[in-house]
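Deviation from plan, reported transparently: adenosine-2'-monophosphate complex.
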Amino acid sequence: MQMKKQNVARVFFALWPEELVQRALHTLAMEYQSRCDARAMNADTLHMTLLFLGEVERAYLPQLIQSASKVSVPSFGFALERLSFWQHNRIAYAAPLLEIPALNQLVTALQQELIAAGFPFENYEFNPHVTLLRRVGHTLESQTIPPIMWWVDSFVLVESVLTDTGVIYQILQKWPLSPMEN
Ligand code: 2AM
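Because the crystal trials were delayed, the predicted structure below was used instead.
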């Protein structure tokens, strides 16, 4: 059995949906669950990862939080308009149809602050998605869905905690985005 590492936290930055968006996403997940022979994510775990850090020493979390506090980008809205599948990790996810410049701007700003502070992270291509189903047994063609509108006025730092009953997500810090530019 693997020992739980108390001195490190598995963390990532994310957009956390407000209740209406969360409900719409969960409804969609439940709708496709049996068709895809999959397991729907619990409503309260749904999110969009902005930047995955992985294990960070707890002693560095205050510094990480301070760095992310320097991000200053305006609020924005976007729509999730398609349901797609990845074979390699057997997930189904909701995603936008097009690039969202304001979302990319938020991720870039975050990356820049973490680089400036010396936090290492894997520089993978940002692929905006919300995982809805895991362990998909039956994948479908990518398809459009009724748009789920998401107004983004904050982002969060989340710790992924492994418990006896599975993984839970704990929001460690939340930052507001600046009011929308005119
Ligand atoms: P996923 O939903 O596509 O699996 C918590 O695990 C969050 O971090 C999930 O949104 C997960 O994405 C993402 N995540 C986990 N491991 C990752 C990695 N190595 N690179 C990027 N994102 C990762």
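The pocket of adenosine-2'-monophosphate is lined by residues 12, 49, 52, 91, 124, 131, 160 (CB under 6 Å). We consider this an acceptable substitute for the interim report.
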